[in-house]
Specification:
This protein is mainly α. It has two domains: 46 residues, no CATH class; 152 residues, Beta-lactamase (3-Layer(aba) Sandwich), CATH 3.40.710.10. The protein contains nine helices and three strands, in the order H-E-E-E-H-H-H-H-H-H-H-H. The N and C termini lie far apart (58 Å).
């Protein structure tokens, strides 16, 4: 591997997308062949990114969500072949007939037929503004608007119900990556287990696996207190 060329590529990518800082590591046969931080973990203080810098792991949590669902299935509390409406009766799409056919398995395999929707943007909107990273999103071509945000389970379900779109096909017919489906799986985990998503993962995954350096920040989708 030509480290010089890779460094040039990484530097140009960071600059192009206005990325404050990132860490890149490449392994071959379990051995690091490249490991370097680019940019800063704290731009104002010029603190560089290192191999010990903590990053959000993003969609790797989808594998944790699937693990939790399968644990609940093993406990006899649900089946992956159950209709989603069994646990989320208020869930709606523009096609009620196809909605009834959607199962937990369809959600897990990104095959429900739900197309990409802007839900994730509105779920992250408040934190983006609080972090001052609005300009970074705009640099990536994401159009900003002044509409509200999604902060609760109820708001997520209401937002999805209000969207006007065509499903991609029959449930199970096509694969289309869906953050929305996984957010809904998180709600199912909460309703079936009686725990918050965070508490469930801590008790049933992190602690048993000895994941002492893994943690969750405030979960975006919460149930409103009444």
């Amino acid at each position: 591997m030509d480290n010089r060329k890779f460094n040039e590529f990484a530097d140009s990518t960071v600059e192009q997308h206005k990325i404050p800082g990132t860490m890149i590591a490449i392994q071959k046969d379990g051995v690091d062949t490249f490991k370097k931080g680019f940019g800063y973990r704290d731009v104002d203080q010029k603190r560089e990114v290192t191999s010990q810098t903590v990053f959000g792991i993003g969609s790797i949590t989808k594998s944790m969500t699937c693990t939790a669902i399968l644990q609940l299935q093993e406990a006899g509390k649900l089946s992956v072949h159950d209709p989603v409406l069994t646990y989320l009766p208020e869930f709606q799409t523009p096609n009620p007939a196809k909605t009834k056919q959607m199962t937990i398995h369809h959600f897990m395999t990104h095959s429900s037929g739900i197309p990409p929707l802007p839900t994730l943007f509105y779920a992250n909107k408040n934190s983006i503004e609080a972090e001052g990273s609005k300009e970074q999103y705009e640099a990536m071509g994401i159009k900003w608007d002044e509409n509200g945000s999604i902060d609760t389970n109820e708001e997520l379900l209401a937002f999805l119900a209000a969207q006007d779109y065509d499903l991609l096909g029959e449930p199970g017919q096509y694969m289309s990556y869906s953050n929305d489906a996984y957010s809904l799986l998180g709600i199912i985990i909460e309703r079936v287990s009686g725990q918050t998503y965070a508490d469930y993962l801590i008790e049933h995954l992190f602690k048993p696996l000895g994941m002492k350096n893994t943690f969750l920040l405030q979960i975006r989708f919460k149930t409103k207190t009444r």
